[in-house]
Amino acid sequence: MATLVIAEHDHGSLKGATLNTVTAAVQVGGDVHVLIAGSNAGGAATAASQIAGVAKVLQADAPHLGEQLGEDVAAQVLAIASNYSHIFFPATAHGKNVAPRVAAKLDVGQLSDITKVISADTFERPIYAGNAIATVQTADATKVATVRSTGFDAAATGGSAAVEAITAVAPNGKSSFVGREVTKSDRPELTAAKIIVSGGRAMGSSDKFNEVLTPLADKLGAALGASRAAVDAGYAPNDWQVGQTGKIVAPSLYIACGISGAIQHLAGMKDSKVIVAINKDPEAPIFSVADYGLEADLFVAVPELIKAL
Amino acid sequence: MKVLVPVKRVVDYNVKVRVKSDGTGVDIANVKMSMNPFDEIAVEEAVRLKEKGLVTEVIAVSCGVTQCQETLRTAMAIGADRAILVETSEELQPLAVAKLLKALVDKEQPGLVILGKQAIDDDCNQTGQMLAALADLPQATFASKVELSADSVLVTREVDGGGETLKLSLPAVITTDLRLNEPRYVTLPNIMKAKKKQLDVLKPADLGVDVTPRIKTLKVSEPPKRGAGVKVPDVAALVNKLKNEAKVI
């Protein structure tokens, strides 16, 4: 029995969610190997070899793996899949893109967003936007799963696994990379941030959103998030979206400004350590999960808060 | 070019589901059911491609119980031309649905399959990618922009940290994200028109697919409750609590 973890990386370094996925893999029992499929990804491979609990790092390096196309990464995983009882991906945009392709080709069911390992074949995962927790068991030969990072601690460093080069698969020929539009930001990444300042539809406009919340986030060194309603209205970019259909976060402090607290939003942030809600509607459902609720007009309260910090 | 649009009947997004007391699942008896919101975006996108003259026929597909016919009628009220129901009362998991859709792709030979990225009941986010793998088609998940031409499609995807654009050869599979479009309201005349459109009913066996579930749900439980905290009177009290009680700033 061995588990293959598909690393999420930018070739030079590992993305944080990889570490949580390794922790889930270690809990399964058996050896843990990490696959780095990339281009000039020696830096990421070295970082993976230093994760405690990792027995071996497999590195497939080729120029076309640079863009991490789902078809190519899935083919790379399938090339070595027969050696593993479990194949785990971080439940990120990238992992969710690739994992089902691997499962379908292996003719096995896939488990999405596991939050707990109960045994080698039984796991917990949230359904209905986290309003219910399902305990699921799979009898399939290979267990393919995506791992929700907020369900597991990040693995520590201190390992010294060997890095083994493996043959890269050929490009798929049906899809190609055209371009990327990266949101430049000096802020911490949403899923890794210790503090998140989040805005809802009550922000009123994209300008107001930035004008009011950016100084607060700057002051706290926080990441900026948004509710689906705010994203829908065009006040904030989609990759700021916190909720069932966006990012799942669990920072030490989550400050929800003008967010009513729809089920789908709560699903993305209710595991935060401390939740603050600022909303002028006393009946807003967000108050039912907030540790500290401030019933106030956010356009008055947020600037006051910035001054008081 | 034909476009196939799979749609799922799910508990309406406004309904807060309750876990059954015996732990066997969630209670969906007498609960409002609707089309999965992401699938509605998929239907809208397909219909817009047809309105632009890039597509000749939009076929809506649903897999599940008889009542999925209502969901298909909604798809046809938005503008789908005809519909296919693969009827079964068995629990259908994403792999089984992907196999049913693969059989329909073989039969109908669409140039494009557009699906929602995720259903809001089981939150799996798998079916589109599984279909693409089984049919050996290229995929673009989490689409926020689709530009179709005769033999390829450019798709902008929502990924962590921004967006990326892929070019796929046709046929291809696309899954929709939130910002792709805003689905239209269906009008009464279109609802009436949809009732007259063709709706074929098949069984999984007609497509030669074994839909036996692979994953067993042992138990469904309530998530741990988070207790409500306190209301603070003003900003000064809030800062005091955060500094001295919670010690998070």
In words, what does this structure look like?
The complex is a heterodimer of chains A (309) and B (249). Chain A has 309 residues and is α/β, with parallel strands linked by helices. Chain A is built from 8 helices and 16 strands. In chain A, helix 3 crosses helix 4 (93-106) and helix 5 (206-220) runs parallel beside helix 8 (298-308). Chain A starts with a strand and ends with a helix. Chain B contains 6 helices and 15 strands. Chain B has helices at residues 37-51, 68-78, 94-108, 127-134, 188-195, 235-245, and strands at residues 2-6, 9-11, 18-19, 26-27, 33-35, 57-64, 82-87, 112-116, 139-148, 152-159, 162-169, 172-176, 199-202, 215-221, 230-232. In chain B, the strands form 3 sheets. In chain B, strands 11-10-9-12-8-1-6-7-13 form a 9-stranded mixed β-sheet, with helices on both faces. A two-stranded antiparallel sheet of chain B has the order 2-5. In chain B, helix 2 packs across helix 5 and helix 3 crosses helix 4. At the A-B interface, helix 3, helix 4, strand 5, strand 7 and strand 8 of A face helix 3, helix 4, strand 9, strand 10 and strand 11 of B. Strand 8 (132-138) of chain A pairs antiparallel with strand 14 of chain B, so a sheet runs across the interface.
Brief overview:
Chain A is α/β, with parallel strands linked by helices. Chain A has 8 helices and 16 strands. The longest helix of chain A has 15 residues.
Low-confidence stretches of chain A: none
Order of strands, main sheet of chain A, comes to 5-9-4-1-2-3-10
Chain oligomer state = heterodimer
Work out the number of β strands of chain A. Answer: 16
Per the principal axes of the C-alpha atoms, what is the gross shape of chain B?
Answer: globular
Q: What does the main sheet of chain B amount to? A: 9 strands, mixed
Radius of gyration of chain B: 21 Å
Helix content of chain B: 25-40%
Please tell me the overall pLDDT of chain A.
96
Beta-sheet strand percentage of chain A?
Answer: 25-35%
- Count of discrete alpha- or pi-helical segments spanning 4 or more residues of chain A: 8
- Major sheet details of chain A: 7 strands, parallel
> Order of helices and strands of chain A, N to C?
EHEHEHEHEEEEEEEEHEHEHEEH
Number of DSSP-assigned strands of chain B: 15
Count of DSSP-assigned helices of chain B: 6
Q: Cα distance, first to last residue of chain B?
A: 58 Å
> Which structural category do the helix and sheet elements of chain B fall into?
alpha/beta
Helical content of chain A stands at 25-40%
Q: Shape of chain A from CA axes? A: globular
Please compute the radius of gyration of chain A using only Cα atoms.
Answer: 21 Å
Order of helices and strands of chain B: EEEEEHEHEHEHEEEEHEEEH
